[in-house]
Design a protein that fits this description.
By secondary structure, this protein is of the alpha/beta class. The chain is 32% helix and 20% strand. The strands form three sheets. Strands 6-5-7-8-3-9-10-11-12 form a nine-stranded mixed β-sheet, sandwiched between helices. The chain has a three-stranded antiparallel β-sheet with strand order 2-1-4, covered by helices on one side. β9 and β10 form a beta hairpin. The radius of gyration is 22 Å and the shape is globular. The N and C termini lie far apart (45 Å).
């Protein structure tokens, strides 16, 4: 059922309008579901803005695409934990039913028609959705490049209204290039107004709004203009994407910064890199890049010193972790492989981690997946 819009009219609000928003302890507001999480940490909940920021060409759009894919996988009932493609993002959204039709709405204001098409196709591939299925999925993506600036907000509202009239509920609004909704991101009045509009949409539609903002050149972490600063202040979560170096194949790192309630360590970095074969960013695989990695002091990089059984186990791990696995999934596989109990399997996993054969994206979170080691060096980010 579509939730009634809770916003007041454009007329001057009355005291009666204000009373609708008064705190009432007898009317409990339950904790909302997490629309989007990263490695087990909730990022986006209904009624809030979240933000993705980074320097130009740092892979921000790829990160947004992976986030949309995680939500699409949830809405279409696909297996949610393909971490390789969704870059560690997951969603608690439930699969759509005949009575509950949730949708994702995406607007691109920056890219050409070809690059917009390519991004949308990559989202389908990350979501394990065939091209033939695309017309029936709860995903609407539009390019606003050819739409005049003064009409963009109005068109976004009209599209949301049209979807609601058809019985849909907006789960998430994604804006790739929110700065293109204003004529000047350094104009405080204009910037504050568009952020207030987005926040009002998020609350009234009980959806998440996710924006992309560029950082100031050479000023790491500072989003551009009054618009960027205001979005950072109002966002439930700020994700930062930073590229380690100037080479086209350099690793990018995702970090959670300035988040409400997120407990991921600030110095933790999730590595992603460009995959030439798939032509999109995936979780970083050291074998796919010439980037430097941390070597484990007690383990030689050469397999020549390993025993035959160790080499076989290492090869087996590399095959099984082509798609990253959670601790639980890996433990079950180890139990089956070496015919042991849970405690021994955990011991072996810890041993292989210490030797650099495998690594965990976030050692402090049980929900994050294991990948083939050694772990990429994060200090260069």
């Amino acid at each position: 059922m579509v939730k009634k819009d809770s916003r007041i009219s454009n007329n001057a609000p009355t005291l009666q309008d204000l009373e609708r928003f008064r705190f009432n302890p007898s009317k409990e507001i339950k904790k909302p579901e997490s629309i989007l999480s990263l490695n087990g940490v909730s990022l986006c909940t209904p009624g809030n803005i979240s933000n993705i920021q980074g320097q130009a060409k740092s892979a921000k759009s790829s990160v947004m695409g992976a986030a949309m894919a995680a939500m699409l996988r949830a809405l279409t009932g696909k297996k949610p934990d393909n971490f390789l493609e969704t870059l560690g993002f997951t969603s608690d959204l439930t699969a759509n039913t005949a009575k509950d039709q949730k949708v994702i709405l995406h607007f691109d204001t920056e890219q050409s028609s070809y690059h917009h098409y390519k991004l949308a196709m990559d989202i389908l591939k990350r979501s394990d959705i065939d091209k033939k299925e695309a017309s029936n999925i709860p995903f609407y993506s539009y390019s606003l490049v050819c739409i005049d600036l003064m009409h963009r907000q109005s068109l976004i509202e009209k599209k949301i209204e049209e979807l609601e009239k058809k019985g849909n509920h907006l789960a998430c609004l994604m804006l790739d290039g929110v700065a293109d909704l204003v004529s000047d991101p350094n104009n405080a009045d204009e910037s504050f107004a568009v952020v207030a509009w987005l926040h009002g949409l998020a609350e009234s539609k009980q959806c998440a709004v996710i924006t992309i903002v560029h950082e100031n050149p050479g000023d790491a972490g500072k989003a551009r203009g009054h618009l960027g600063s205001q979005i950072q202040r109002k966002s439930e979560t700020n994700l930062r994407v930073a590229k380690a170096g100037d080479k086209p194949d350099a690793i990018s790192y995702i970090t959670i910064e300035r988040a409400r309630g997120a407990n991921l360590p600030g110095d933790h970095k999730i590595p992603i890199s460009w995959c030439k074969k798939s032509e999109r960013h995936l979780l970083h695989d050291p074998k796919r890049s010439e980037a430097k990695t941390n070597s484990t002091p007690n383990e030689s990089n050469s397999d020549s010193k390993l025993t035959k059984s160790d080499r076989e186990l290492k090869t087996w791990l590399e095959q099984k972790l082509k798609t990253p696995l959670t601790h639980k999934e890996l433990k079950i596989l180890v139990e089956e492989k070496i015919q042991c109990g849970a405690r021994t399997a955990i011991t072996r996993i810890n041993e292989w981690t210490n030797r650099g054969w495998i690594y965990k994206l976030n050692p402090n979170n049980k929900q994050t997946p294991y990948c083939v080691g050694p772990a990429p060096k994060a200090e260069t980010c």
